[in-house]
């Protein structure tokens, strides 16, 4: 199915309907290197609890658990279709209680007790957060002391030039996100910019730059 730019933007925010599975697969292929680099940044310790915002089809969990087999994972996602896909793609992890995929409304983490996780990460979801400061405040709350956050996003100069991002996306400079982190109470904020060869959502080969911002809870 060929989408208009506006329709594609909506599907990237929240995949749904008959094409949701294909959208999820396309997103994973496009974003997998960003996801892997973000996971590497976390340097996950044994027996840790990891939280993710926006897990898509969950195909990256095999890589996450290869990095540390003793972790426990919980993710939230606004797309019910992606929750279903992730459960299908990670049956053994779900069955064993090592992974849980939860459908939730935007930025509603009220069901999560404070200081529940050691790590939190999110890749290419920031553009869709209606209130970024609320997200970062909630992430700070649910992280344990010395917990680590890693947020990855396309650079503003790259993202704003894509045809399908003209509606429904909000891009930020790195300094903007650093400001959100500091306002929430995070310390040791650090950033790295990477460049990769990627396939865009319309199938074109592009050179994409992205930023990984990480920080710690005081």
From TrEMBL:
Q: Name one GO biological process term.
A: methylation
The GO terms this record gives for MF are: S-adenosylmethionine-dependent methyltransferase activity
| InterPro entries named among the record's database cross-references | Methyltransf_11, SAM-dependent_MTases_sf
- Which positions fall inside the Methyltransferase type domain? 52-151
Q: Which UniProt keywords apply?
A: Methyltransferase, Transferase
Tell me the pathway: Lipid metabolism; Phospholipid metabolism
| Protein name according to UniProt | Class I SAM-dependent methyltransferase
Per the UniProt record, the source organism is: Dysgonomonas capnocytophagoides
